[in-house]
Amino acid sequence: MVTYEVSATVDATVADTYEQYMKSTHLGDVLASGSFVSATLERGGAGKYRTLYRAKNRHDVDRYLRDHAEALRKDFAEHFPTGVQLTRDIWEELVSVSA
């Protein structure tokens, strides 16, 4: 599995709107690209969020970045021209252990 992680620092003035947009629109739009098998939105504290999009392989992530990311990032920027700072990382799973 490969995880495409988007971390967000969100101003308090837009936090509720950000959460609603992510839950009702953005996560579904990203999954509709067909590149990911799941998406998770997490809150780590005041104004700290991360979204984890899981793909079967790196090829699927690369396809998303090539074919879909630009339009979805544009839509996001139209909803949040200010108040949200993003960082993005790609993580390749090396081992998974369960109890």
Can you walk through the features of this model?
Helix content is 38%, strand content 34%. It has helices spanning 15-31, 58-67, 69-79, and strands at 2-10, 38-45, 48-55, 84-92. The longest helix has 17 residues, at 15-31. Helix 1 runs antiparallel to helix 3 (69-79). It is α+β, with helices and mostly antiparallel strands and 99 residues long.
Number of strands: 4
Number of helices: 3
Structural class: alpha+beta
Spatial strand sequence of the major β-sheet: 2-3-1-4
Helix content: 25-40%
SSE pattern: EHEEHHE
Largest β sheet strand count, sense and barrel closure: 4 strands, antiparallel
Please indicate the percent range of residues in DSSP E strands (runs of 2 or more).
Answer: 25-35%
Distance between the termini: 19 Å
**pLDDT below 50 for ≥5 consecutive residues: which ranges?**
none
Overall pLDDT, averaged?
97
Question: How is this fold's topology laid out?
Answer:
Blueprint: E1 2-10, H1 15-31, E2 38-45, E3 48-55, H2 58-67, H3 69-79, E4 84-92
Antiparallel strand pairs: 1-3, 1-4, 2-3
Helix pairs in contact: 1-3
Brief summary:
This protein is an alpha+beta fold and about 100 residues long. It has helices at about 15-30, 60-65, 70-80; strands spanning about 1-10, 40-45, 50-55, 85-90. The chain has a four-stranded antiparallel beta sheet with strand order 2-3-1-4.
Question: What descriptors fit this protein?
Answer:
99 residues; 34% strand
